[in-house]
Amino acid sequence: MYQPPRVQVIGEVLWGRLRALTPQRVRPARSVLLRQGDPATHVILLNSGSALVTLAGASGGRTLLAVRGAGELLGELAVLDDRPRTATVIAAEACHVHIVPAPEFLKFVNTHDLLLTFEACCRRGLTMCDRRGMPVV
After folding, report:
1. Confidence category of residue 132, pLDDT binned at 50, 70, 90
2. Torsion angle of alpha carbons 32, 34, 36, 40, nearest 10°?
3. Are 73 and 12 in contact (CB under 8 A)?
4. CA 41, CA 51: separation in Å to the nearest integer?
5. pTM of the entire structure?
6. Which of 3, 27, 71, 131 measures 20 to 30 Å from 45, CA to CA?
7. Tens digit of pLDDT for each residue in 42-57?
8. Parallel, antiparallel or unpaired: strands 72-74 and 32-34
9. β-bridge mates for residue 104, sequence order
């Protein structure tokens, strides 16, 4: 099941407004963008580059859940649920990102009535993991 990038889901205009909330930053390859278990203090808009979404197992191994590219939103599930991060996201290459604090993101979601849209996207992603026999986080 194909899941389009969030920029396509909410449209270029809203994506641009969300991106304009914070300055663009560069994160080097192999840097941790989000860490499993950390509090949900922000979301990340991936402007360019790619990132690996991984899950730490009990034995210390990692399972690759997804690869995300430009136009993706990272960490929204934890912010929307107000729960700790469920996965670690690592930059696969240098990434240009916008780091939006959780309160600003939630205000944006509420202002533009995007809660159901983002929840549906998250549900589809979890369903895809479940169908592949991956742990649902």
Report:
1. very low
2. 160
3. no
4. 19
5. 0.85
6. 131
7. 999 999 999 999 998 8
8. unpaired
9. none
